[in-house]
C-alpha cells in the first residue's frame, strides 16, 4: 500500500491505492479508521481500491467555504475524473455512505454501482423523530453500545496517535454535519436520481441508524436491495467481516 | 480596585433531587415557578442594593441548568438598568458564538446602554462546553463564529450612517442598522472571560478587559502574563484595570462567620462539576490533544493548592478553597489581606468579580455579606 498526496480541485489530499482489479472508491466512515483496515485489505483482493482521506480528517484545514457534504461530493467527482476512472464501484460506510449518495444524485456517468453500509445523510422521519441518534449526548458506554453489537471498540487499547485521530474525526464530523444534524434536509427528494444499482448493507443491531430506517430508505432508491448482517451493529465490516464481504458478491459478479 | 457583585441566580431547591447531573438533561418538572419567582426577585433585590453600597453589578448566563436560572443575561440587566442609578453593569456574558442572531445582541446591548445612561460593560464569552447542546451550535467552528460575531456586533454598534451589508461565513444580513445607537462612544467597554494564557493573549492583543474565572493562586499569574505579553506585542498598554478575577467572597464579624458564608457560596464551585461526563468535551471544542487525553481518562475536576497538592472541586473545604485562591474569606482584615496578597502575586489586579451570593446562602446572610464588605473592605481596596 502506498499513500500518495495528490491535488484535486486545488485541494491537497492523501490517498491510498491498493490491490488490483476493477476500480473501487472507498469513502471512509467517521470513526476508528485503523479498525477498518482488515475490511479494506479484503476489498483489495477483488478490486483496485482508492481510499482518500476526507479533508479535515487528514489533519489539514479544509479551504474556506468548503464545509458541507456536497463539497466532498464534488471533490470526489473531480477525483474520479482526474484519475480517468470508469465503471467505478463506489463504497461508502456511514458518513462515507452519505458522501456516496450525494455523489450519485449528482452524476452516475462514471459509476458502476453504489454500496452503502448503514449510510447517514437522509432524513425520513418527522421533525420530532430522531433518525440518527446523537451519540455526543449519550454516556460513553451507551454511545459505544449503539455502534457495536458485541465487541465495542476499546478506547483503552488505542495508542495516543489513535486517540488524537478519534478526537479529530469527531471534530470534522461535527464540522461538516452538526446542524442540520448528520443529514441534508433535501436529500430524500433527490434519491430517484441514483441511476446505478445500489447495495445497502446494515447491521441487525445498529443503534446509531436503525435497520428499520434502512428498510424505509430502500423504498426511495430505484434499483436497490438490502442485506442485513446478523450479530453486527453500525459497523458490520468490523464486527462481521466475512459476512459483510459475502454480501458484496452480487456487486462483484455484476 | 473596582468590585463587582455576581450571582448565578441558582435554582438550588432542585439540587438534591437531581443528584450528580445538574445540566442539559434535567427535566424542568423539578423547577417550581412559584419558588423560582421568589428567587428571581430576591437576587434582583440583592443586586439593586449594590447601587447604594458602591459595588458594581455582574450577571452571566447558562442554559438548561439548575445551577444558574439566568438563561438570558440581558433580562436581569435590563431590569437593573432602570432600577439602579450609579453603578456599572457588566454582562459577562453573552455567548456570541452560540447566539444565532448577532445583530440582536447588538440591539440588546445598545438598549441597555441607553436606558442605563451609559453604564453598560459588554462581555463576549465562548461559553462553557456543556452550553453547546442547548444552543445546538457547532463546536467545531465555535471560535470562528465567535470572532465573526464579534466583528459584526462592533460594526453594528459603531455604524451610524444607515444600513450596511454583511454576507459572512456564519452571519448573513443585507440591512444591518441598529437602533438605538449606544450611549457610550464608540461603544461600551468590552470584556472577555479567560481560562488560559492563550485566551488571555487574544484579549490582550485587542486591549479588552479580562476576567479570569476561579483560576486560582497557581494558574492565574501565567494567564495574566499571557495577556501582558500579547498586549505589549500589539503595542498596547496593559493597565491594571484590564485585569479581573472572579472569586468567592465571604466576610463576617468573626473569622468563623465569614468562612461559613463563603462555605455556603462555594456550593457554586462544588456544583459546577455536576454535569454528565459526555457534556464536557464537545467535538472540536478544545484541542484534539486535550480531548484525546480525556477519551483515555476523564478524571474529576481538580484544583491546585499552593504546596503542589490538589483537591477535588466537588468536595473542597473552605480552607482548601482559600489556600487555592478561589475564595477570600474571614473577617474584613483577613479578606483584605488575602485579596492584597493575590493582587501582589498576580502582578496587579484591577477588578474583583466577587461572588457574594451562591449556593444556599440566605438573603439575610447575602445582604450582611455585601454590607460588611462595602463598609470595611471596599474603601481599603480603592487604595490598591
Structure description:
The complex is a heterodimer of chains A (254) and B (384). By secondary structure, chain A is an alpha/beta fold. Chain A has one domain (2-252): Alpha/Beta hydrolase fold, catalytic domain (Rossmann fold, 3-Layer(aba) Sandwich). Chain A has helices at residues 37-43, 69-82, 95-106, 140-147, 160-177, 211-218, 236-239, 241-246, 249-252, and strands at residues 2-8, 11-18, 23-27, 48-52, 88-93, 111-117, 198-203, 224-229. An eight-stranded mixed beta sheet of chain A has the order 1-2-4-3-5-6-7-8, sandwiched between helices. In chain A, strand 7 (198-203), helix 6 and strand 8 form a beta-alpha-beta unit. In chain A, helix 2 (69-82) crosses helix 3 (95-106). Chain A is globular and about 45 Å long. Chain B has a single domain (2-381), classed as TIM Barrel (Alpha-Beta Barrel), CATH 3.20.20. Chain B has 384 residues and is α/β, with parallel strands linked by helices. Helices cover 42% and strands 16% of the residues of chain B. An eight-stranded parallel β-barrel of chain B has the order 1-2-3-4-7-8-9-13, surrounded by seven helices. A two-stranded antiparallel ribbon of chain B has the order 5-6. The termini of chain B are close together. In chain B, a hairpin with a 4-residue loop joins strand 5 (164-167) and strand 6. The interface between A and B is medium-sized, with 26 and 24 residues.
Give the secondary structure arrangement, pairings included.
The complex is a heterodimer of chains A (254) and B (384).
Chain A: E1 2-8, E2 11-18, E3 23-27, H1 37-43, E4 48-52, H2 69-82, E5 88-93, H3 95-106, E6 111-117, H4 140-147, H5 160-177, E7 198-203, H6 211-218, E8 224-229, H7 236-239, H8 241-246, H9 249-252
Parallel strand pairs in A: 3-4, 3-5, 5-6, 6-7, 7-8
Antiparallel strand pairs in A: 1-2, 2-4
Chain B: E1 2-6, H1 15-18, H2 33-53, E2 56-59, H3 74-83, E3 89-94, H4 102-115, E4 120-124, H5 132-135, H6 142-158, E5 164-167, E6 172-176, E7 190-194, H7 197-206, E8 209-213, H8 216-233, E9 243-251, H9 255-265, H10 267-271, H11 288-296, E10 302-304, E11 310-312, H12 318-323, E12 327-330, H13 332-345, E13 351-355, H14 363-381
Helix pairs in contact in B: 2-14, 3-4, 4-6, 7-8, 13-14
